[in-house]
Amino acid sequence: MTSLVFNNLGTYAEEAIPTPFDCNTNFVERVEVLRGARVALTVTQAVTLASVALSNAALTVSGTLAGPELDVTLRGSSVLSHAAGDSNGVSIAASTVAIGAGSMIDVSGKGAFALPETEGRSGGSYGGRGANSYGSSAPTYGDACWPTDLGSGGVGDGSSIGGGRIGIEAETLVLDGELRANGQDGFIYRGGGSGGSILLNVSALSGAGVLKANGGCNGSYGGGAGGGGRVAVYAQDLQGFAPSALEAKAIAGAEWGTVFLGVPRTVVVTCTGQGVCDPAGPVVIPYEGMEPFVFNPMPVSLATNGTAVTPDMIFEWVNTGLWRGTADDAVWLERLNGQDTLAAGFEALTAGQAVAQPGGGMAVTVNGVAGWRYTLERRESLTEGEWLPVPGQADILCEVSGPLQLNDPAMLPQAFYRVVAAP
């Protein structure tokens, strides 16, 4: 393996000029930045990297860090960032990403300047609107479900800068350090920048790290605070994830941004009257339903839409893989899906849960929660018609946590099933 090593031998100087390096060849497979080195890495074309490792060092990246077996590791007090205004942000497509305690991907104040609609001394907007001051802030923008934008700056005597962009796609992400995309604080006569975007799309996520896309503070002499940014986390396995902070906050006067945490899942199983049930290859039905779920362990400061989340709060799982708090918050639902209501949801079925019955029909076993009620629903088309409860299999109380079996003996040519759960 061909390695390129930058080692500053432990000499640390924050004001040091980064060493520029253009990576435009597959000749280099491993990049190491060590002991106080500062490197500006530009990936100018598709490069198959095997390893990028930082140890008590700083790396600013332009372009995408990618490779089918790529490992990205940050140790000690390392910092990975991107150049200010780079719309590509810190973009990683890897097998494994590990960010150790004390290290961070920090793109705070690396976003965009103020939007044209931002007036007076108002704060910048993105996921949440900046605070108005001597004029109006700009409207919010971007996709709460899949945030990829830079945050924007506040105005006044010059412009502040919004938070940058972090995007990680990996098989495994171990986050014990920090991901930061905060907006720049305001200054004299100047509003603060909005938070930026953080988007994680991983198979397994673990760690007790920090994710923040908060708006910048208000400036003195009337500068408005920046709005919150947008955070979205998609993962198949969240069992080892207990972040110490997961935020897109803003201070008083500005709006909080959007924070989502969840698991994209398949939701239905097909059964035929010929005695075949196939939950191994079910089909996703997007944008339909929610599943109440208690997130345990609860992040210390997870909050949504300005409402702090308590350890006993019930979340709602929307079938896009999104989490949010405050089930009765119609305003939040309006921001999520364009309407202030959302249909009841269903529990995913996996291989082994659904078994065909002799002569047709099916039996499904779910891991019930004591005190919850379960309903087996079906329809003959995956995309059309109403989901109707199976006779005798509606609103069944689970008295003791554990396996709960639901049955449909009906002989249908084909049926699609889902399990609705409600506390």
Strand-pairing-aware structural class:
mainly beta
Mean pLDDT rating: 76
Q: Please indicate the percent range of residues in DSSP E strands (runs of 2 or more).
A: 35-45%
Oligomer: single chain
Number of domains: 2
What low-confidence regions span 5 or more consecutive residues with pLDDT below 50?
A: 263-268, 279-330, 340-348
Please describe the biggest sheet, giving its number of strands, its sense, and whether it closes into a barrel. 10 strands, parallel
- What's the Cα radius of gyration? 24 Å
What would your notes on this structure say?
A hairpin with a 2-residue loop joins β22 and β23. The protein has 2 domains: 3-262, no CATH class; 271-279 and 347-423. The protein has 423 residues and is mainly beta. The protein is built from 1 helix and 31 strands. The strands form 6 sheets. Strands 1, 3, 5, 7, 8, 10, 12, 14, 16 and 18 form a 10-stranded parallel β-sheet that branches. An 8-stranded parallel β-sheet has the order 2-4-6-9-11-13-15-17, with no helix packed on it. It starts with a strand and ends with a strand.
